Amino acid sequence: MNFIEENNIKNSIVILVAPSYSKMTSELDREVFGESFEYLDKYSKSEIDFKKINKLNNKYHVFLSDNDPFINTESAKKYY
């Protein structure tokens, strides 16, 4: 979502699989994501301009698992 926002990318469909959410990073995340942690940490702390994203894109599909130990459905509700 941050990439779409920063680069003004217009899509007809955006598919998000287990999307992260603000302030999701922790020491456990550092262990899980390894070298990618710094990149993910940068984006997890920035707010998404959903109004801008909605102007750029027409349709969204969000896929979540009800037993994901890292990204739960409650935390990802902001995407809906």
Task: Offer a few descriptive terms.
80 residues, two-stranded parallel sheet, alpha+beta, 4 helices
Describe the protein in words.
This protein has four helices and two strands; from the N terminus they run αβαααβ. Helices cover 35% and strands 18% of the residues. The chain is globular. It has helices at residues 2-7, 27-33, 37-44, 50-56, and strands at residues 11-17, 57-63. It has 80 residues and is an alpha+beta fold. Strands 1-2 form a two-stranded parallel ribbon. The mean pLDDT is 76.
What is the gist of this entry?
The chain is 35% helix and 18% strand.
**Helices and strands, in N-to-C order?**
HEHHHE
End-to-end separation in angstroms reads 13 Å
Provide the spatial order of strands within the biggest beta sheet.
1-2
Please state roughly what percent of the residues sit in beta strands, choosing from under 5%, 5-15%, 15-25%, 25-35%, 35-45% or over 45%: 15-25%
Please state the oligomeric state of the protein chains shown. Answer: single chain
Radius of gyration: 13 Å
Topology, element by element:
Blueprint: H1 2-7, E1 11-17, H2 27-33, H3 37-44, H4 50-56, E2 57-63
Parallel strand pairs: 1-2
